[in-house]
Amino acid sequence: MGVEVVVDGLSKSFGAQSIWRDVSLTLPPGEISVLLGPSGTGKSVFLKSLVGLLKPEQGKVVINGVDICTCPERDLYEVRKLFGVLFQDGALFGSMNLFDNIAFPLREHTRKGESEIRRIVLEKMEMVGLIGAEDKLPGEISGGMRKRAGLARALVLDPEIILVDEPDSGLDPVRTVLLNQLIVDLNAQIDATILIVTHDINTARTVPDNIGMLYRRNLVMFGPREVLLTSAEPVVVQFLNGRPDGPIGMSEEKDTGAGELARLSELAVPPMMPQLEVTPGMPERTAVRRRKERVLRQLRTLAPSAQQEILKTLTPEELALYGFSAPATGSWPQQAEPATAPAWPQQAEPALPQNEVADVPQQVRPTPHPRDPEAPPWAGKPEPAAEPVESSRRRWFGRKRGEQ
Ligand SMILES: Nc1ncnc2c1ncn2[C@@H]1O[C@H](COP(=O)(O)OP(=O)(O)OP(=O)(O)O)[C@@H](O)[C@H]1O
């Protein structure tokens, strides 16, 4: 199974330019997460910081107990072996054919013989559908093939963490969906922890288990996909609807007028789309079951709209097991206290320690846009405090790290 990546209080600047500050999130092991954000918000800088290519000034990135921001170079070298990175353009060497490009990390970082290298390279090329293209140069193939070759190269060292920078850039919608399907299938086969950086709405809505969003130098949120995809935060609604009016503008520092926000508040949050399933014949994604257990443990801390979407994914047996009653009329949720601590009948692992449950608020970031009358216009209209939805949204958006 992939390893957990814990990011705690990370801040990065270039000179006087602050890129993002105090970013905290945990990439759950073996799950697929997406980091969204408008252009220039520092998504690629975040990926490079995770793999130790850039050094944040503050905070930690802890992987297998090693803080890669402060560890000695030799420890960083070891931790980096856990990673496979697919850069935007595939980052292939133009003068090498695909076979040699994909074999490169094996020849550089291992002592494997050429026959073993050949076996591994062909296995990975088959996984990404590139068998037969071994002798092609990167300049002779399409953008989609280059991405797949980059993915094959990212896989040859059997990574436990895969970082993917904008898999959709330069691809048509069909190739994008095919690449997304490939990533989901790969996750089923190797159970690696995957983080995808993108601004493609369709990818965000269909691929990940968890979604985060960077905006104005802050991590607006990070958590189960249902939270962001049902959020009514103006910046999220604008982004998911791909609208010109709203807090996001050509300039990062755009001010939003009241009229724009009013138009935005009339927009519906797009309905949830089903998550991509693995291709028939592939192994199941074991991360799906682990995630379900994890998310159900934190269910009551989530916004009601997210709770509803999560409960809809449960079978009647799971509803009964977790102490939720099925809706009589199709309205959700009818949530009761679970009779017992959640436990799957087939669960082999011991019950989680208490503090693991207490970790949940670390996923819940305070909003940089507090909804009060003093807030700037882009923060949106304050809603009546008595509304249960609002109070629950405050619980999701307004919680400080460490608060229960
Ligand atoms: N090595 C660097 N030195 C100085 N500034 C940098 C460096 N790398 C990135 N930046 C700056 O950091 C900011 C964020 O860049 P980044 O590429 O991470 O954004 P992004 O969110 O990935 O954008 P896009 O979605 O357009 O790819 C930009 O202003 C960029 O100019």
TrEMBL record:
Pfam families: ABC_tran (PF00005)
Chain residue ranges for the region called Disordered: 330-404
InterPro entries: AAA+_ATPase, ABC_transporter-like_ATP-bd, ABC_transporter-like_CS, P-loop_NTPase
The keyword Transport appears for this protein: yes
Biased composition (Basic residues): 394-404
Keywords assigned: ATP-binding, Nucleotide-binding, Transport
GO molecular function terms noted in the UniProt entry: ATP binding; ATP hydrolysis activity
PROSITE patterns membership: ABC_TRANSPORTER_1 (PS00211), ABC_TRANSPORTER_2 (PS50893)
Domain ABC transporter: 5-241
Protein name: Phospholipid/cholesterol/gamma-HCH transport system ATP-binding protein
Highest taxon, organism lineage: Bacteria
Gene3D superfamilies reported for this sequence: P-loop containing nucleotide triphosphate hydrolases
